[in-house]
Amino acid sequence: MEQPHDLTVEAPRAWDRPAVAVPVLVCLSLVGGRFASFSTEANLYTLGTGGVLIWLGLSNRVPRRPAPHRLGAGAAWWALPVVVFVVFEGATFVMAAGDDFPTFSRLADPLLEDRLVRSAAWLGWLSAFWGLVRR
Amino acid sequence: MMRALAIGGFLASLVLFAAVEWAARREGSRIPTLGDVCAYVTRYEVGSVPVGRIGLLGFWWWLGWHFLAR
Fold first, then answer.
1. CA spacing 20 to 30 A to A38: which of A5, A54, A70, A109?
2. What CA–CA distance (Å, rounded) separates B63 from A98?
3. Quick check: helix, strand or coil at residue B20?
4. Does B53 touch chain A (CB under 8 A)?
């Protein structure tokens, strides 16, 4: 008989432990940091790593942490940073003033040209992705 | 001047993200952490389709592609 996926408890797997996951994420990030923007390699690598993580996130292969059944009124505080970001991103995008009033990605691009910063960004992206997969 | 305003605005939003997360992690806080908010969003389903999970994972993939590949 098929079990409801919410009630399924899976045994911890070796690759689910931080001692395994962190070095793997670091290695993947160091490789990703080598690929320049707009390169075929960067596109394929983003597609590959992201595709695998989306597949893991949509399947039941990775144990998930319990999610809250409801959020309290305190969740409204999260609207504050989101609104500030959306207002500035929207204004800079609509005005399209280039470097005079740059969008967030236009500001980030020169920083991401550095290989070390790029690898760090990859690590942040992959780590958060892994966290989302396990939620 | 306008450039400084944009940088200041984006920095302010990042500081606010960190501040709200810090407040959420304090003992007895009524503010959920960003992880809890994301987990709550992933619970949203339409029928048997995990729309929240698909949307959140898809958004995060797009964000990485936008900054790291485009």
1. A54
2. 20
3. helix
4. yes
Q: Per-residue pLDDT tens for A74-87? A: 999 999 999 999 99
The pTM (predicted TM-score) of the whole model is 0.86
Q: Note the Cα A83 to chain centre separation in Å.
A: 20
Candidate from B58, B60, B67 with C-beta closest to A121:
B67
| Yes or no, beta carbons of A125 and B64 under 8 Å apart | yes
Closest CA to A112 of B5, B70, B47: B70
Q: Strand pairing partners for B49?
A: B46
Are A81 and B2 inside 8 Å of each other by CB? Answer: no
- C-alpha–C-alpha distance, residues A32 and A103, integer Å: 24
Token pair listed for A111: 């920083």
CA triple A64-B63-A102, angle to 5 deg: 145
- Residue B28, pLDDT > 80, answer yes
